[in-house]
Amino acid sequence: SPSIMGYSLTGVVEKVASDVNEYQVGQRVMVVAPHAEYAVGDVDAEAGRVVPLVDDVSFEEGTFLPLATSAVAWADSSGVQKGNTIVILGQGLVGSLMMQVLRGYEPARIITIEALPLRCQLSSELGTDVVVNATDEDPVAAVRRLTNGKGADLVIDCVGGHAGVKSFEQAQDMVRTRGIIQLIALYQQAPLPLYASKIMSKRLVAGILTDEPRAQIALRALEKIRTGEIQAARMITHRFPYTQAKEAFDLLWNAPGKALGVLMIWK
User: Is the distance from CB of 182 to CB of 202 less than 8 angstroms?
Assistant: First the structure.
């Protein structure tokens, strides 16, 4: 896409429009906008594209708020129940946030699947119960072994990209009869395989299915960051000055195994 990269910023309000009363110059906020030194925020009351930051959430932690908001909405939409066994495929930012948010639903166990050693390590440190390194062990066989052959109650696919085609197929082999597969991942650039013999008597949930206004969900996500239920600061692996934006994007594109949360600093 030729559009400007990025969508998650934090900073201080410099100006407000004449018809805006709920924000003031100098206020600390998160804004959904492309990466830039200055951004214009849409203050629609329900959209949650601008959210005030509470004092004990740092600017760095606040940059995780858009994805954390989506993670809360995805979790609400997943059909998860207390006592479930959950499998999360992928431990990038989305998968890691899903794992942390779903801890609050009191599952019996969360199993995360990842092929990159750094992300396996961070997943364990951030609170998953079991990490399966897909490079060392077949993930489908591992899930079957860990669930005594039954399969998981809920399998959430956060892999995306080219590898997401295979992970979606694996999800169908990991979920139990009458269990749920939730598809969050995007950008596979190919049709996803859906086998009638595997999906029968199982549910498929795609993305967000809640009617709650996003602005309200954002406040819930912000509270999870504030209390440490979402450990945003621990997800940061790199910081770059904005003058090294190319190096930041090159790192994510060429060496994803070396990074998780990457920040650009505009001061």
Answer: no
Measured distance CA(179)–CA(211) in Å, rounded: 23
Helix or strand (DSSP H, E) at 199: helix 196-199
Per the structure block, which two tokens stand in for 2? 């030729």
Would you say 61 and 233 are in contact if contact means Cβ atoms under 8 Å apart? Answer: yes
Q: Which two tokens stand for residue 181?
A: 């597969």
pLDDT per position as a tens digit, 81-124: 999 999 999 999 999 999 999 999 999 999 999 999 999 999 99
| Amino acid occupying residue 141 | A
Q: In this structure, what DSSP letter does residue 11 have?
A: E
Segment 2-41, tens digit of pLDDT: 888 899 999 999 999 999 999 999 999 999 999 999 999 9
What share of residues in the chain are helix, strand, coil (percent, to 5)?
Answer: 35, 20, 45
Give pTM, 2 decimals: 0.95
